[in-house]
User: Which sequence fits this backbone?
């Protein structure tokens, strides 16, 4: 990313510092195969129709990226609770300078889009949106 911002061409040789970071990333990317995300949103031995589903969508932004993560919380009649990541999205910020408040608003829009997809698919009973930005509120 820094090479794009600094105006380097695609075939320019990277400076030593960026080359080291690239090689480190390349060595670490192989470890991603060990990451496990449990995608089942309901408990295997419990009827899904009995659960009350609520959705919690978290949004945030920085100078580098915006992101939204949507979790589904299933509460069963016996009080058992299961929380699962339903969907997440991230976007790299534009190369043109944009203020953090505007990026936070873009994150909120991204969160609304993610939440709409999950809500339509799962028929959610209740939705809550979370942000650390007063600009979004």
Assistant:
């Amino acid at each position: 990313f820094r090479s794009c911002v600094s105006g380097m061409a695609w075939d320019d040789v990277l400076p030593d510092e960026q080359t080291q970071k690239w090689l480190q990333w390349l060595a670490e990317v192989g470890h991603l195969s060990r990451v496990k995300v449990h995608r089942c949103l309901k408990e295997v031995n419990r009827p899904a129709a009995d659960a009350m589903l609520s959705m919690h969508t978290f949004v945030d932004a920085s100078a580098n990226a915006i992101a939204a993560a949507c979790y589904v919380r299933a509460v069963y009649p016996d009080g058992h609770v299961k929380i699962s990541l339903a969907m997440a999205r991230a976007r790299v910020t534009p190369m043109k300078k944009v203020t953090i408040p505007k990026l936070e608003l873009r994150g909120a829009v991204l969160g609304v889009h993610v939440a709409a997809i999950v809500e339509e698919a799962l028929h959610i009973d209740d939705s809550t949106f979370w942000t650390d930005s007063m600009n979004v509120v």
Q: What stands out?
A: The mean pLDDT is 87. The CA atoms of residues 75 and 81 lie 5 Å apart. Residues 100-122 form the longest helix (23 residues).
